[in-house]
Amino acid sequence: xxxxPRILLNTGASMPQLGFGVFQVTPDEVEKAVATALETGYRxxxxxxxxxxxxxxxxxxxxxxxxxxxIFLTTKxxxxxxKAGDVEKAFDASLTKLGVSYLDLYLIHWPLPKTxxxxxxxxxxxxxxxxxxxxxxxxxxxxxxxxRRLLDAATVAPAVNQIELHPxxxxxxxxxxxxxxxIATEAWSPIGRGGELLRDPIITAIAExxxxxxxxxxxxxxxxxxxxxxxxSVTPERIRENFDVFGFELDPDDxxxxxxxxxxxxxxxxxxxxxx
Length: 276
Hints:
Blueprint: E1 6-8, E2 14-16, E3 20-21, H1 27-40, E4 44-46, H2 54-64, E5 72-77, H3 86-98, E6 105-108, H4 118-130, E7 137-140, H5 144-153, E8 160-164, H6 172-180, E9 184-188, H7 196-199, H8 201-210, H9 214-224, E10 228-229, H10 236-243, H11 252-259
Helix pairs in contact: 1-2, 1-10, 2-3, 8-9
């Protein structure tokens, strides 16, 4: 466990670089999946109010017997809570469902630019942080324009921006902005939800070179780029496989070859338009 890489956030909190995500994991499946992840060695779990599976995540954490301080727990603000006074209520609801007394990281899930309340929401997030109720606060799916506006108004800079990021969408300009402002980059959909990306001949050739799977190859690419990465699976073998990425290292030429696959191709919604 001590050998797992960690990212030091701008609040001083230390976050495991490889975590376990539960997007689209059903309430019926999530407890078993998180239990398997924790047994495997993951110590960072990422959920969200919108996923409607926080209760199962919380049960898995309690039943694991792992001390709460050893698990880095992230959840996200529901999009329906972008109203004055609703942020703390939503935060409290998540704590209750998760069965915990504090969070390690709380994120604004989407900027919702047409609704245009994320600056006001951030002020309430800052209060949660100053009150010690969450060790770090951040955002998800924010573009550079959203971040600039937020930073202009912020007392506390976002610790993390969790964004869609994989070899077909490398997000280099946004990642450069993050580095400049000491914001950690976290990748959701890091292996492109499988499918075409994991069949790409460049990826498969590199995987064969190291005698690993395409998914392991892509996860390793993320780690070596200093991205925080949260692959998702409900299959125990895949959960374990996705964690088994610390025994090899990609050559710089292979990192570059994977990065060159960028198509600026999204799987998920465009944050400039999404209001869901």
